[in-house]
Amino acid sequence: MRSLKRRVAARDNGCCYVCGREADEGETYDLEHKRPVSQGGATRDLDNLGLICQACHEVKSRVEAAEGNRRRVQRQRSTRG
Ligand SMILES: [Zn+2]
Predict the structure, then answer these.
(1) 4-35: buried (b, 16+ CB within 10 Å) or exposed (e) per residue?
(2) Cβ–Cβ < 8 Å for 7, 46
(3) Which residue, 11, 26, 62, 72, has most beta carbons within 10 Å?
(4) What residues does each domain of the chain span?
(5) Element (H, E) at 52
(6) HSE (side-chain half, CA atoms, 13 Å) at 54
(7) Ligand 1 center to 39 CA (angstroms)
């Protein structure tokens, strides 16, 4: 079976979809859902997948965690009325 990651890498020429940087030799990029699965993103749709470098992945994870926290806080506020 051809892996999704290889198909995405071939499509994007092995570049990070966020910053467009090409992987250095020996560097591996992660396969990332552009739209998080938790927000309705497709899991195996090539259109929703991209390669992401470590630096961008870290930033994205932090942003998503912060957004998750914000949503939780808003929910708590709205239930308190
Ligand atoms: Zn990047």
Answers:
(1) eeeebbeebeebbbbeeeeeeeeeebeebbee
(2) yes
(3) 11
(4) 4-80
(5) strand 49-52
(6) 5
(7) 22
Please, which residues have CB less than 5 A from ligand 1, an ion? 16, 18-19, 53, 56
> 69 CA distance to ligand 1 centroid (A)?
24
- Residue 60, number of CB atoms within 10 A of its CB: 15
Q: What is the pTM of this model?
A: 0.79
Q: 52-68 pLDDT, tens per residue?
A: 999 999 999 999 899 88
Which two structure tokens, joined as six digits, stand for 20?
């467009």
Fold of domain 4-80: His-Me finger endonuclease fold (3.40.1800)
pLDDT digits (tens, 9 = 90+) for 9-67: 999 999 999 999 999 989 999 999 999 898 899 998 999 999 999 999 999 999 989 98
